Amino acid sequence: MRFQVPKGTSDILPDEQPYWRFFESRASETAASFGYGRIDTPMFEDAQLFVRGVGEVTDIIESETYTFEDRGGDLITLRPEGTAPVCRAYLEHGMHNLPQPVRLYYFSTNFRYERPQAGRYRQHHQMGIEVFGDGDASIDAEVIEVGWRVLDSVGIRDKILGLNSIGDTECRPGYVEELRSYYRPRVDDICRDCRRRLDQNPLRLLDCKQASCQPVTAGAPRSADYLCTACREHWEALLGYLRDVELPYRIDHRLVRGFDYYTRTVFEIVPPDEGSQSTMVGGGRYDGLIEELGGAPTPGIGFGMGVERAILNVKRQGVQLPTNSRTKVALAHVGEAARLRAARLASCLRMAGTPAMLAPRRSLRSQMRYASSQSATHAVIIGDEEMGRGVVVLRDLDRGEQREVALADLETVLRGSEA
User: What is the DSSP letter of 120?
Assistant: First the structure.
């Protein structure tokens, strides 16, 4: 075969669609129950939005974005993450003039050029939420709870919440210097990427997954020990709110997240006993991002949830999808005149709200097999003899029962089968 799906992408086939629709429905319902409204942003943006928002020296901007010059000479980037575009929309559409906080959720397709692996793709899908205009620790707890409850809603019970505080512009610079001072004498013991991060993005030293770096990282200073008074009060209040809503958590002093814009709270929700690429939910607070993009100082916090990873865990944990009890009809026919009549009847049933499809021109037995392969609940069989008497044969494919039904009564009988 000449063409195949591009590396790091995948086709979502009809058999997989029920998982995706199930996830989107439950996630949307959960976000709405917390008062969040949906927003959709373009798939590509001005490249500078991500340089200013995500950070020039992050791995994503340095090597992972799909950035190109369009025919008008503008530098465009395919969306690598969801937060910066929603921040841009918040500013552009004057949402800072609305009553604060503003609560938003979204589904997005994101693009990153990286090595594909299980649950990690070059084109991947994300559900995310963002809250603007309230810096209170109760909002941090709410955002974390939304992520937890979304996973609950799709049946993912086995999960772990990891938390950390990385401080803010007041206290983080001092911590970063302590981190550099710790790593510099040990530079020969860390990987090449970490040597580069030591100067450009020191917090990412803690996030390195290379085995050679683990002994050094284990003894590194902890950000929670260097928090200023305001950050420490915020951190302790957050832990109190999480205890109040009975969300179990563990403090992970190596948790930093990958973007420059994070401040104070960072968190992840992961399945137990999984590898480094298993994170289902990741997010945190970014109180300086709106200002960095040209707005007034505005608190913000949110998360991104990988849809592929969530669905992978839905399957791993054996979640049974809700059954669809709605009637779905296949129109089988014997003879050319009956086929024409079946096609018209299928159209009438669809307009009346009953899903219906015309079986292919094959033997009746083959048409029945086709109906079963399409998960039809009923088959309507029409032949010359039935047409002459104004009836059809209605077969319940689940029960294996059939009966004659007057053509004029068919829609009513089918609606009754959904009760």
Answer: B
Give CA 397 to chain center in angstroms: 36
Of the candidate ranges 182-191, 202-211, 364-373, the one whose mean pLDDT is the lowest: 202-211
Average pLDDT of the chain, as a whole number: 90
- The answer for residues whose C-beta is within 8 angstroms of residue 338's C-beta and 6 or more apart is 382, 383, 384, 386, 387
Does the pLDDT at position 204 exceed 90?
no
Q: Report how far residue 266's alpha carbon sits from residue 263's, in angstroms, rounded to the nearest whole number.
A: 8
What token pair was written down for 399? 């029960």
Domain assignments of the chain as residue spans, ordered by start:
17-171+227-316, 329-417
Confidence of residue 57 (pLDDT cuts 50, 70, 90): very low
Provide the edge-to-edge strand list for the sheet that holds 75-78: 44-46, 75-78, 67-69
CATH classification of 17-171+227-316, choosing from 3.30.930.10, 3.10.450.50, 3.30.70.100, 3.30.465.10?
3.30.930.10
Q: What is the pLDDT of residue 275?
A: 54
Q: Are 285 and 140 in contact (CB under 8 A)?
A: yes
To the nearest 10 degrees (0 to 180), the angle between helices 137-153 and 229-244 is 40
What span, in angstroms and rounded, lies between the C-alpha atoms of 69 and 170?
38
CA angle 244, 249, 253 (to 5 degrees): 130
Domain 329-417 carries which CATH code? 3.40.50.800
Q: Name the H helices within 184-331.
A: 192-200, 214-218, 229-244, 289-292, 307-316
Distance CA 248, CA 392 (A): 59
The predicted-structure confidence for 17-41, as pLDDT tens digits, reads as follows 999 999 999 999 999 999 999 999 9
Q: What is the mean pLDDT of residues 144-164?
A: 96
Whether residue 55 contacts residue 260, with contact meaning beta carbons closer than 8 Å, is answered with yes
State how far the Cα of 189 lies from the Cα of 208, in Å rounded to an integer.
13
Q: What is the strand order of the sheet 329-334 is part of?
A: 356-358, 329-334, 378-383, 391-396, 401-406
- What tokens does 255 get? 């948790």
Rg of the chain over Cα atoms, rounded to whole angstroms, equals 28
Is the pLDDT confidence value at 54 over 80?
A: no
The pLDDT of residue 417 is above 90: no
Q: What does the pLDDT read at residue 276? A: 47
